[in-house]
Amino acid sequence: MSRVDRRLEDIQTEIEQSVPNDITITEVRYEGPELVIYTRDPKRFASDGDLVRKLASQLRKRITIRPDPTSLSPPEKAREEVLAVIPEEAGVTDLDFHIDTGEVVIEAAKPGMVIGRHGATLREITQEVGWTPEVVRTPPIESSTVKNVRNFLKQERNERRDILERVGRQIHREEMSNDQWVRITTLGCCREVGRAAFILSTSETRILIDCGDKPGAEDEVPYLQVPEALGSGANSIDAVVLTHAHLDHSALVPLLFKYGYDGPIYTTEPSRDLMGLLTLDYLDVAAKEGRTPPYESEMVREAIKHTIPLEYGDVTDIAPDVKLTFHNAGHILGSAISHFHIGDGLYNVAFSGDIHYEDTRLFNGAVNNFPRVETLVLEATYGGRDDYQTDQDDSERKLKHVLKNTLERDGKVLIPAFAVGRSQEIMLVLEEAMREGEIPEVPIHLDGMIWEATAIHTTYPEYLRDDLRERIFHDDANPFLSEQFNHIDGGEEERQEVSDGGPAIILSTSGMLEGGPIRSWLEHLGGDPNSTLVFVGYQAQGTLGRRIQNGWEEIPVGYGDGRQNTLTLKMDVETVDGFSGHADRAGLENFVKTMNPRPEKVLCVHGDERSVQDLSSALYHEYNMRTFAPKNLETFRFL
Fold first, then answer.
1. Residues 493, 495, 497, 499: is their CA dihedral positive or negative?
2. Any idea what the Cα angle at residue 218 is, between residues 217 and 220, rounded to 5°?
3. Helices 144-155 and 450-459, interaxial angle, to 10°?
């Protein structure tokens, strides 16, 4: 018998001694980071709300109670009883019963009404039928991504349970080493923007944080083949942690499964769905441009199947000696600062991912309050000494001024935007400006993945800014349902109609003009002097967006269809700073200045050479902390 099996036996004995005598425990098992307790008496657990909390505190584990299959009422009878408990206003759209685990997945328009105050309605459901309820939100805007992910995970439940059990046993394995050390190896995004990837190593565990591509340089990928990463075999990595779904952090996560990785990915639930959306589009764009995709779509499904979603604030065991906690990063939907607690108080490391410190229209600002942090790995995209963005109110005023001028001369405004984050931020500005009469009411056309990404945002309103979340909870106030928004789904024919029509605003991917429908819009509108191209997001070195910002007028068109023509750009070009999802220089300094506790060491990454060195120098002189501007393939030992 293995150590894990002996430990599970001991835990079951401890549980049996702790619960009332009339409760029967039939099985205890690990599923990922959770301890799952099967019982013939789920109603007794539901009637005593403190019992699970006491066990979780006693065992220091996240606990899930599931009914033994022999104790379940038939699904047909349970369905009626469940619906009788849930208020009709909750808008239940589906009930899905899983006999193997005793779970009933309840999809509802208003999940809060299914959960009830402090989980009261969930407990009542279990008390009535014995089944364990799990609640998901019905997307206010239909989302093919959310639907496909949920259906796929439903189809793969058995294999997913096997994966979770294997991961759980790996997390709770016996520690093999008596050494104590912590190292970080940089595999990408050092003195550059893009291809984010790091290895966090202890004597016991190896964790990969992010695995992205580099915009405008498809041949530059993270250094995955070095011994610290995949050079020792893909399964020498114990876990992958994804800070957020933008491609410069997520694009090559599915590639790991092509190389043989079979372990868990930890990220938030919206990041899981967005990763699926963006990586599948990444493959589609590569194929359209005649490039060989680095992996097949099957690898995206493998990544989703192996993802273990975590919520902000949950402290989770991901290895025998590592606990992970996600905190809001304020960057895009589901973006997370990843805090690692190593050993029994041995060391603490936080990876910022990409952060925005101040509140935006979409998100609350990044969290920087932690129990302990000795080392911070901090993004420096806008870390240069002159990288101060315009105040958000000023940015919005400038954008509305540009819009008004262009629309009043019957032109069209073309805004290249990242599908996730910037597009939704701009949508909120446009919706309010038209509602308040600050700019003319014209159609707002959304092209590329923007509409689908917006649907995912409305599926997870708990990750949005407080006041926006409340608006989405009420259908008549949901700003994303404004009648001005039009989803471009008619392809080239519809784009031609819009181009031939009256004044309009077009938001289109990709945000750096490196592919996607924005290239078609440039072909349609680039020669119109009455129209305006407005940059609202970061344009990386080497991208077409950066070249146009720098004054390029001869633009390649017909990209990807075999034609290599050029177009003389006659439309106005404007840049409106202040809408970036990244903190500027002041925001980065304030993030560190107000951090509690303040770290001893800071590694400045994810910025060009000037930006990381400027920020590193400033933090050193201002706060007397050890700072670094590492190069790729450097290793730092902290103990």
1. negative
2. 70
3. 60
String of DSSP letters for 205-224: -EEEE-----TT-TT----T
Are 398 and 337 part of one and the same domain?
no
| Residues 6 or more apart whose Cβ sits within 8 Å of residue 123 | 46, 47, 49, 116
CB of 33 within 8 A of CB of 314? no
* E strand residue ranges, 370-512: 375-379, 412-416, 444-447, 485-487, 504-508
Torsion angle in degrees (nearest 10) through CA of 341, 344, 347, 353 = -10
CA distances from 271 to 149, 268, 512 (A): 12, 5, 21
pLDDT at 342: 97
Q: How far apart are CA 169 and CA 167, in angstroms?
A: 5
31 domain residue, yes or no: yes
| Measured CA distances, 123 to 39, 101, 129, 313, 446 (Å) | 15, 17, 10, 23, 42
Domain of 207 in residue numbering reads as 159-172+180-386+582-637
Looking at the structure, tell me whether residues 235 and 378 fall in a common domain: yes
Q: Using the structure block, give the residue that is written with the tokens 């939704």.
A: 424
How many independent structural domains does the chain possess? 4
Interval 589-624: pLDDT, tens? 999 999 988 999 999 999 999 999 999 999 999 999
Sequence letter at residue 10? D
Q: Give the DSSP letter of residue 300.
A: H
Q: For 269-300, what is each residue's pLDDT tens digit?
A: 999 999 999 999 999 988 887 889 999 999 99
Kindly give, in sequence order, each residue whose CB lies less than 8 Å from that of residue 169, ignoring residues fewer than 6 positions away: 2, 4, 30
Entry pTM: 0.93
In a domain, 411, yes or no: yes
Q: What are phi and psi of 91, to 5 degrees?
A: 70, 55
Q: Is residue 154 part of a domain?
A: no
Phi-psi region of 322 (alpha: psi -120 to 50; beta: other; left: phi over 0): beta
Query: What single string gives the DSSP state of each residue in 488-539?
Result: --SHHHHHHHHHHSSSEEEEES-TTSSSSTHHHHHHHHTT-TT-EEEE-S--
User: What is the tens place of the pLDDT at every residue in 491-518?
Assistant: 999 999 999 999 999 999 988 998 889 9
Tell me which amino acid residue 520 is.
Answer: S
